[in-house]
Amino acid sequence: MKSPLANFEADVIIIGAGAGGGSAAWRLSHYGFKVLVLDAGPSYSPSDYRQSSHTWEKPFPYKTASKSAYEVAELQPIHELKNELRSWNKMKGLLVKGSRRANFGYHHVRGVGGSSLHFTGEAHRLNPDSMQMKTQHGVAADWPMGYKELEPYYQTAEERVGVAGPLSDTRCPRSAKYPQPPHPYSFAAKVLDKAAIRVGHQPQANSLAVLSKPYDNRPACNYCGGCQRGCMLTDKGSIDVTYLKHALASGNCQILPETEVLKLETHHGRISSILASHKGKLHKLSAQWIILAAGAVQTPRLLLNSKNAHYPHGIGNQNGQVGQNFMETLLTTVSAEHPEKLGSHRGLPVNWVSWKYNAPDSIPGVIGGCRFGPSMSESDLVGPVAYATRVIPGWGLKHKARMREQLGKVLSITSIGECLPHKKSYISLSDQLDQHGIPVPRIHSYLDQNAMARLAFMNAECRKILDAAGCDSPFETFSSADAFSSTHVFGTCRMGTDPRQSVCDAFGSVHDIKNLFICDASLFPSTGGGESPGLTIQALAIRSADYIRTLN
Amino acid sequence: MSNKQQDHSTHSHNRISRRLVLKLLALAPLCWEQTYAQLNNPEPVPPGVLPSVLDVLIPGDSTPGATDLKIEESLLDTASQIPRYPELIQQGTQWFNTTSLRSFYKPFPELAPNAQIRIVEAAFNQPEMTLPRVFIERIREDAMTLYYHNSASWTGMDINRPIQPLGYPDHEEPPGKL
Prior knowledge:
The complex is a heterodimer of chains A (about 550) and B (about 180). With about 550 residues, chain A is an alpha/beta fold. In chain A, about 20% of the residues lie in helices and about 20% in strands. The longest helix of chain A is centred in the last third of the chain and has 20 residues, at about 450-470. The relative contact order of chain A is 0.21. Chain B is mostly helical and about 180 residues long. The chains are: A alpha/beta (about 550), B mainly alpha (about 180). Chains A and B meet through helix 7 and helix 8 of A and helix 6 of B.
């Protein structure tokens, strides 16, 4: 059988079919570019998900190749960490038994749609105040463009995906209202909303890439709460059912799953070809433009692994910036039982959000903000298996009776906060090799005192909200303080105006390679105060696509 | 449906005598050493120990018990794919049976439900990282997971069907309103 890669003429090759790659593919294919999208992982269809089976509570259905190989370097000691900051569960005790932070994983999906396949659908714009961290607060780096420049691209992304959001949203100035009306709160989310207000928060409907009304031939959400297990209905705006669907419909786009790019080759300051493995065979491909969108762990890995005589430290790495400034998800979740049955297993994962402490100077004594929201579904506390193994101790008849009595009573609050770059947090190449004999990425993660102080504030505030809701003492806390556990990763090919301090310019163009662009969260100079990065990645990628069009 | 445990409320394990607990605790290290030494030549464990332990953990009542849903088979299947898990089951069930013989002069499956409950309770009360504690906590976790993945276990709960295709159109209301 003839390989689908043979004789494919592409103007643009995109490496990675997630948020950045998918949105760039859509924009460029609609401008008439011939686009080839390669993804190392498989493709998914709604029938891959299990929500209508008895085993619906199983996690996202990973397939062969839908997780990429990586290694995590030894993490920092935690002997001085206060107990209230530790991850624990009343049934299991401390979740980290050793004397160092533990690796709980870089949670991602490698596949067509990327990590949007298992995301909760949060679609946030970045707080404009978070984009000048260096100038305003002397930390991280400034974004090389202002919020105003990004705003039209945010709007385009929200319309493409169908974001449902609040009728009034003053945190980030908007040129138009959200394309979809906000979702109603679940009963349990209303209880938490009232509690949050009681302790001084101002929650608002979360902006979600989840349809509140039918849109773009996709149905409205039916509030099963299973977003993280993959969306069977397609109401969740994952990249495959939004951007990539329309990119394919343009007739100018081809997507090749299970195609892993192993190396970029250069000639006269350009990427001349890429070496890709597809179904066990190696292929050399070339195009006028190459877009690298493999995420903040795999993107620097590919650049570092592509070193050659002209780029002895890796492509784009003449100043040693590739892989530096790694920033992770800084998170704390606290869960407790409420005395009443609330049916808290029902509804959207993150109905509302409190941005009260989102601005970088809003937490007293700590630089960098955070946000709060309900998280029963995000904490995976929505079914009997979770209750039996994490909430209700014991066994026997009494345990069974408690299961019937307690299901639906758990409430959780999560806070995600700003993560600032640190010289001890970066991506390097490991000694460990993948099946192609190529070094896998090694993640180095370190949280300093400022991060720990932010986590302490986040943890205390989560407890305050649960307490105000009338919950019992918490039965579980999960915290980045003693566990590396990251879904959002950022910063490893930072964009900026100074090539000595950055890898790319403001359009994601790699400084010393004329036809190579990066379109993922590697670009972020700072993370924001807990915003989910997907929408910003999309906005940046659409902007880069528009820029490529002008160059063409 | 198994009703073997039905007449013996789990409250009964709260009535366990302190003396018995101490006796069982004293046996634990000995049993661990014995089974450790038998790694390469394990004594056969009488059939029925594992299902009996599982039925103590998840007895039948208005919903099926562990054996009614063939949790033992699923558990052994899961264990066969995890390094050292089959050995843990072998040694763990052996501890239960040895403890049963020493304490009550009968194999574990032949014990009255109250006596079975006492031994399970004793296993949970062993120090961390001892064989009985590791075994009982691990099989509790996995048995509960397998059991509650089966819809037959959901009767009487606020969840009585998979989350799709219906979703939760009543999510805004107090539970049970619609």
